[in-house]
Amino acid sequence: QVQLAESGGGLVQAGGSLRLSCAASGRTFRRNAMAWFRQAPGKEREFVTAISWSGGSTAYADSVKGRFTISRDVAKNTVYLQMNSLKPEDTAVYYCAASTSGSYLYRSAGAYDYWGQGTQVTVSS
Predict the structure, then answer these.
(1) Radius of gyration, alpha carbons of the chain
(2) What gap in Å lies between CA 11 and CA 58, rounded to an integer?
(3) DSSP state of 1
(4) Per residue in 102-122, is it b (16+ CB within 10 Å) or e — as a string?
(5) Residue 124: Cβ-neighbour burial (10 angstroms; 0-12, 13-18, 19+)
(6) Buried b or exposed e, range 85-99, using 16+ CB within 10 angstroms
(7) Span 27-55, pLDDT tens digits
(8) Cβ contacts of residue 14 below 8 Å, gap of 6+?
(9) Which of 13, 23, 42, 96 is the least crowded, having the fewest Cβ atoms under 10 Å away?
(10) Tens digit of pLDDT for each residue in 100-121?
């Protein structure tokens, strides 16, 4: 019914930039927040950033503050993740998520109802 599709992943050198996109399709749905999570091999899925759909308020993990920026285009039903000053430790599969009722301040994966398939981001040194 609702699909989230990430794109924009790839290979980049340390210090470089990358922009991820997450396009929602299918039926119209109400959402309070959209977010990006990431998961490196052998590690837990971790919160990266979230945005309030209506107001655009944002929250960031400490590890990405000042380097990553989340934004959304309501008309295009799309959320973006601009990643600058990338580090090798940013290497992970990045997942887009949407919450129908949760606040953008929630950082638990369990607060999100819809998930994309993920896109690989690899940062080389």
Answers:
(1) 13
(2) 26
(3) -
(4) bebebbebebbebbbebbebe
(5) exposed
(6) ebeeebbbbbbbbbb
(7) 777 778 999 999 999 999 999 999 999 99
(8) 86, 87, 88, 123, 124, 125
(9) 42
(10) 988 999 999 999 999 999 999 9
